[in-house]
Design goal:
The structure is a single chain. The protein is α+β, with helices and mostly antiparallel strands and about 180 residues long. It contains four helices and seven strands; from the N terminus they run ααβββββββαα.
């Protein structure tokens, strides 16, 4: 179920976890607003990579590329990763249902390559979902805590006990998402 929280709400939840003042607009020139804006994209991509939230996971058909010579003895196929793909969870044969197949990610001059022995491969991937209105409530809470972790050092001047507390809160958000996912 999508959340009703907006970007500013998440900024203020993160600032609340820190115990600092909240903001009225992301365009404010306050240290709190500047840090939230600065770390927003990194926090989102990192949090999405940390758990396969259903709103961000899709199965896609991969586009085959020429296998670089350096991998010819090791793998049979190379595929391009789709745009906005943050993490590959598994690779499947696109023609038949079966077990997940081994793969490896490497980079080439054009970006990331997925190497595997699967013909007509499909992958289950997490994608970068920037639209906050599509996020579920579990991710909103995780995102606020991840953002709080990243902005804590510049705003709180490296308060180690607060950083540990935020890391525990973030882990609790991941555990909560994990516990609810199978039941939905």
């Amino acid at each position: 179920m999508p959340s009703t929280a907006g970007k500013l709400d998440i900024f203020n939840m993160a600032l609340g976890f820190l115990g600092t003042r909240t903001i009225a607009s992301e365009n404010e020139r306050t240290p709190e607003a500047i840090q939230c804006v600065l770390y927003w994209d990194r926090a989102r991509r990192s949090a999405l990579r940390d758990y396969p939230y259903r709103f961000a996971v899709r199965r896609v058909v991969l586009a085959e590329k020429t296998l670089p010579e350096t991998y010819e003895g090791e793998w049979r196929h190379a595929y391009a990763l789709p745009d906005q793909c943050l993490k590959v969870h598994s690779v499947h044969d696109g023609r038949e249902r079966g077990p997940k197949k081994p793969f490896r990610l490497e980079s080439d001059s054009e970006g990331m390559l997925l190497l595997c022995d699967v013909e007509q491969a499909m992958a289950t991937c997490t994608f970068d979902v920037e639209d906050v209105s599509l996020w579920d409530e579990n991710f909103v809470m995780a995102m606020a805590r991840k953002l709080a972790m990243l902005i804590a050092v510049p705003l709180l001047k490296n308060n180690q006990s607060k950083l540990q507390e935020l890391a525990q809160l973030y882990q609790a958000a991941l555990n909560s998402a994990e516990g609810q996912d199978p039941s939905e």
